[in-house]
Write a structure and sequence with these properties.
Layout lengths: L2 H22 L5 H6 L6 H12 L2 H14 L4 H25 L4 H8 L3 H34 L3 H51 L4 H4 L11 H11 L13 H16 L2 H4 L8 H19 L2 H16 L7 E2 L5 H7 L4 E3 L7 E2 L10 E4 L3 H9 L4 H39 L5 H24 L8 H22 L5 H21 L4 H4 L21 H17 L6 H11 L11
Antiparallel strand pairs: 1-3, 2-4
Helix pairs in contact: 1-8, 1-17, 3-8, 3-13, 4-14, 4-16, 4-17, 5-11, 5-13, 6-7, 7-8, 7-17, 7-18, 7-19, 7-20, 8-17, 8-18, 10-14, 11-19, 11-22, 14-16, 15-16, 16-17, 17-18, 19-20, 19-22, 20-22
């Protein structure tokens, strides 16, 4: 059976599963649509949270970034994982005890202000829309290569699938679909990693194979990788820091607090029955996330080694273009891998020296998807990886789109403009808003804006600089008032947007491993993708300064903050 036929079968089977779950999970109430009725088991919610968490960025992009950045890529592992721990420890249980449907609803009620709620909606939509662009790209990349269809056709199919199960089932349908998607994506990620680890090191555990010796030699795999990359003029893989210690710290911090502030993951903790279940599901989610995140460094290093040895099979002997492996020609068709034989000798030189280098383009996102082909694994493994990449992109896209639609229908329509709307009308509005959000996300997928390469900077940076501080101060500061919260969100959002858009021309550089001299106008050498942490500092500072010079919150709001933090009565907290 050909690879394309097998891929169609595997991907088609997973899509049929998702659609079947959507039909079985059809909802007719806002409670089911927004929070799945608040009755999801903690283990099931942990698995769904893991799928929601591990987007195309985790499945497709993270290992690709680490593969070309080396040690510097550890910011993604530390930032995203650390952010989840912050969310689980400092936000999730308290927000669940408060018991509302959405993050803007919490901000609006806690800061006793419709204006604060509207500002939170704006922050949420900006962060979520920019993040969903990356999911759309992941869908398009996977379809264009493995199903051999045009990028736009693949994107349209993905949009249709998300529309069907998200609009029909809401959070309930998305939750059970994400459980299925987690199973698909984790198998798709770990099975090829096990095969490749066995091939290279003889160790079936990729996490251990990363530090093991190559088969038949006494050379450690990472030592071999350092040797290979340095021979071609690249920086040493295992010690290549990300620009500077300050930048590494700020990048990691921005990803951590940005991740903890992403609303599509936060709302997952509103779907469990009790506060205790929110804590439990957070723990289970971390277990499920760790399976992929501990495997990613191995996938990255092994993919880079296999790729380098493809480009230079023997020392000093570069790949003959006419004899290139089939996987190379397959990915050339997608234009995500391109060559330029400058000297016309028929060999492709791969070097850190731009005057010598003939590898015109390597998209980081192809490394995980191409890895099984590079390692010459069976076709069924390659087909499974395609299904896994699509599952990762679809699961997060659905969560993001639900967060966007609920903020429009529940926070703006019901919460601000039409409080007396009936539940049936609100549910209809939610579905219309969902359809509109999918349409907007699809448009941006078909016509990516100039800053598409900087979606990480915007999504995580804006969440870090606006939503996360407002949540933290709302939970842990009785003195924080509406004036301070609004001023802080606007200041943090504004500073981060100004810095990111000022440097949008260099944001493409920030997404590659090839960094030249630092631009003179970078603030303390901090790249745009890492600036969310600075925006968060501005948010906290402005919020506390303004609140200190304005009236204290009403007494009942201070009592509310105290009640949220007190464990007593948590078991029965429902909030609805």
């Amino acid at each position: 059976m050909t690879l394309q036929t097998l891929t169609y079968l595997v991907v088609g089977a997973t899509f049929a599963l998702y659609i079947g779950i959507a039909i079985a999970s059809r909802v007719d109430s806002t409670n089911d649509f927004y929070v799945a009725g608040g009755g999801i088991h903690p283990i099931a919610n942990g698995m769904a949270t893991a799928a929601d968490w591990m987007s195309a960025a985790s499945f497709i992009s993270m290992a690709g970034l680490i593969a070309f950045m080396g040690y510097g890529g550890s910011v993604f592992l530390m930032g995203w994982t650390g952010g989840y721990v912050l969310l689980a420890m400092l936000l999730a249980p308290y927000l669940r005890k408060f018991g509302k449907f959405t993050v803007p609803e919490f901000i609006g009620d806690r800061y006793y202000s419709k204006a604060a709620r509207i500002v939170a909606v704006i922050c949420l939509i900006i962060a979520s829309i920019t993040y969903v662009i990356g999911q759309m790209k992941g869908i398009g990349v996977a379809f264009s290569r493995f199903l051999e269809v045009d990028y736009n056709v693949g994107l349209a199919i993905g949009m249709a699938i998300v529309f069907f199960y998200a609009v029909m089932g809401g959070m309930k349908g998305i939750t059970y679909t994400q459980i299925a998607q987690y199973c698909v994506l984790i198998l798709a990620y770990t099975i090829p990693a096990i095969f490749i680890s066995l091939n290279l090191t003889g160790n079936p555990f990729p996490q251990l194979g990363l530090g093991d010796t190559l088969v038949g030699t006494s050379t450690y795999m990472l030592d071999k990788l350092d040797q290979v990359v340095m021979e071609l003029g690249f920086a040493e893989y295992t010690t290549n820091a990300r620009l500077s210690l300050t930048n590494m710290f700020m990048y990691t911090m921005s990803l951590m607090i940005g991740t903890a502030g992403l609303p599509h993951v936060i709302i997952r903790f509103f779907t469990v029955p009790k506060v205790k279940d929110a804590r439990s599901s957070a723990g289970w989610a971390l277990v499920f996330i760790a399976i992929l995140y501990t495997t990613a460094p191995s996938v990255a290093a092994m993919a880079r080694l296999n790729f380098m040895q493809t480009m230079e099979p023997e020392p000093g002997q570069y790949m003959k273009y006419e004899e290139r492996p089939s996987w190379v020609s397959n990915w050339e068709k997608t234009r995500l891998l391109e060559f330029d034989d400058k000297d016309g000798d028929g060999r492709i030189r791969y070097s850190a020296d731009p005057e010598v280098n003939e590898v015109k383009k390597i998209d980081n996102d192809i490394m995980v998807l191409a890895n099984p082909e590079i390692a010459q694994l069976p076709n069924w493994v390659i087909a499974l990886v395609a299904a896994g990449g699509l599952a990762a992109a679809l699961s997060t896209a659905a969560g993001l789109l639900l967060a966007i639609s609920s903020s429009i229908s529940h926070d703006l329509l019901k919460g601000v403009f039409k409080p007396d709307i009936s539940e049936r009308e609100e549910l209809l509005a939610s579905r219309v808003a969902m359809a509109g959000a999918i349409g907007a996300a699809g448009y941006l997928g078909f016509n990516p804006p100039d800053f598409a390469a900087g979606t990480v900077a915007l999504a995580f940076g804006l969440a870090a600089s606006s939503i996360f501080p407002a949540l933290m101060m709302g939970i842990f500061s009785k003195r924080m008032n509406k004036e301070g919260a609004i001023a802080g969100m606007v200041a943090g959002l504004g500073v981060t947007l100004l810095y990111v858009f000022q440097h949008k021309g260099i944001m493409f550089v920030a997404s590659t491993a090839f960094l030249g001299d630092l631009p003179a106008n970078w603030f303390f050498g901090i790249e745009p993708n890492a600036f969310g942490a600075v925006g968060a500092i501005v948010n906290f500072s402005v919020a506390y300064a303004v609140s200190a010079t304005t009236a204290r919150p009403p007494e009942h709001i201070q009592d509310l903050v105290e009640e949220i933090r007190v464990p007593g009565g948590a078991e029965g907290a429902t909030g609805h």
